[in-house]
Amino acid sequence: AQSVTQLDSQVPVFEEAPVELRCNYSSSVSVYLFWYVQYPNQGLQLLLKYLSGSTLVESINGFEAEFNKSQTSFHLRKPSVHISDTAEYFCAVSRSGGSNYKLTFGKGTLLTVNP
Amino acid sequence: NAGVTQTPKFQVLKTGQSMTLQCAQDMNHEYMSWYRQDPGMGLRLIHYSVGAGITDQGEVPNGYNVSRSTTEDFPLRLLSAAPSQTSVYFCASRRRDSYEQYFGPGTRLTVT
Lengths: 115, 112
Description:
The complex is a heterodimer of chains A (115) and B (112).
Chain A: E1 3-6, E2 10-14, E3 19-21, E4 23-26, E5 31-38, E6 44-50, E7 56-58, E8 64-68, E9 73-78, E10 87-95, E11 104-105, E12 109-114
Parallel strand pairs in A: 2-12
Antiparallel strand pairs in A: 1-4, 3-9, 5-6, 5-10, 7-8, 8-9, 10-11, 10-12
Chain B: E1 4-7, E2 10-13, E3 19-25, E4 31-38, E5 42-51, E6 54-57, E7 64-66, E8 76-78, E9 87-94, E10 102-103, E11 107-111
Parallel strand pairs in B: 2-11
Antiparallel strand pairs in B: 1-3, 3-8, 4-5, 4-9, 5-6, 7-8, 9-10, 9-11
């Protein structure tokens, strides 16, 4: 079984400041890792994913996350946030390979960007 | 494509009532799932399906039933609603060969 720990439930920052949302996972097998974003009153959208290859993955809106196998982490970062980045962010893990179909989510981190 | 649609958006039930939350997708995805989202708990998997006629239990299945008679539809039934089932429910789907799940807009359910 896999588990995900998001270390901060809320992260308030000022606009244009850098931000890091922390995610650690636990698994006895190889995993795929994901970050989902949920804007207010909406469903979840995939922000970025790590399946294989380069351990640094990027999204189209300036977020990046780095897979660190030794530290079992997949932290999400952005060098300069905007008001529009205010949302809840969920880290998720699934077992890699095969006909796997289950995602395990963390409890979420609410990012609030203040002017 | 409409993507993943869910109805209703909001629902209030009394304890003991039954109802069905509807979910449909028009992307011909094989896999569909139901999650519930509670404050501070993240999303928890209720039931999932890997194809028409095949369903299985997730992490929190008690009090819920599902069926999958077509690829497009995956309804979630509450047999006898309880206040503990007050939550936001999300349906999701994905292709068998992809790990990207597409989520519906959610149904906010209140059981009094």
